[in-house]
Amino acid sequence: MSCTKRVEHCLLCGMRLCGMKRRFQPREDVRKFVLAKCKPTPFAYLHLVNFKAPGRGGLCIPCVNWKRRANGTGLRRCARPLLQLDQLMLFMLDPGSVPEPDQRCMDRLFRALRQPDNPLRASFPLPVQTMLGTLGGNTYLHAVAAWWEYNDRTDFFQSAGQAKRVRLALKLGIAREAC
Hints:
Elements: E1 8-9, E2 16-17, E3 22-26, H1 27-37, H2 44-50, E4 56-60, H3 61-71, H4 84-93, H5 103-114, H6 126-134, H7 140-150, H8 160-171
Antiparallel strand pairs: 1-2, 3-4
């Protein structure tokens, strides 16, 4: 489905919005929410906090639902959750350091990350931009395989979980063994 009208993007994930699958909120309210409720990171969080524009912006329905859960008591495992986009970027930079997003969320965020007109693209670190070019799919194992390729198929891992994910990706044929 393509949009012929003015293209808008979700303020929290950068997904292209068209049709009825969006909600509008004042940009300043979204900025205040991010400042008050989310863990700071140098990626999307910093971009959203420093972005000061008047008017209203659109949010995709999954981000509206996530914001509602993060604002209330729906996300009980941590007091200040990471933005979904930041969680995915941190997972791509160091698999195992943060919990992997669920599959539906990961699929949606990878689609948003790959869009060349994503306004949050400027906040992506260079390793994530490079890994997005080599990403073979939308699962966490594809992200792990891209991380492993980016790090020249290293044998050194910071955590046992990271090594376990790389071994699983190798076993399933998602990552290639070094020659």
